[in-house]
Design a protein that fits this description.
- The protein has 181 residues and is an alpha/beta fold.
- 40% of the residues lie in helices and 21% in strands.
- It is built from 8 helices and 7 strands, in the order αβαβαβαβαβααβαβ.
- The chain has a 3-stranded parallel sheet. Strands 1-2 form a two-stranded parallel ribbon. A two-stranded parallel sheet has the order 6-7.
Amino acid sequence: MAGSSGIGVTAIQVARAFGARVFATAGSPEKCAVCRELGAERAIDYRREDFAAVIKEATQGRGVDVILDMAGGPYIERNLRSLAVEGRLVQIAFLQGSKVALDLVHLMMRRQTITGSTLRPRSVADKAAIAQSLREKVWPLIEGKQVRPIVDRTFPLAEAAEAHRLMESSAHIGKILLTTG
């Protein structure tokens, strides 16, 4: 997972709050430090380390139960190698591409699942049910300060282009906000 992204920093905190062991990937030592501060047991600098090898070692070869991935592309095969038997790969974006050549033998031998998720095409009723579940299960963690938003910077709406440049640079940690007032 992109542990220092807006989704990543939230996922780390929520998973820890629910008692999961969390491993995260990030693109610099500074971003890895933030992931650890937020609760990741191990933060892996994907530019310097092979996350699949680190996961294998950290789990004594077992692998992890769930991977939340935003990269896709060349990471999918390594994600599958990092999953445990009956593990699940949840793909929520394809920042590195949506098309891959993939040998499915590993997936079949280990009874793994690949699933995708996005809210856009869902019905209003589905979105309402998801919101209700978040209200019941996650919102109390935010109110109790077990999960806190991480905001890197805010920009006035007139500077949206600058905010977008920061986002594209991947130099931020957490969310980038636009303000209207």
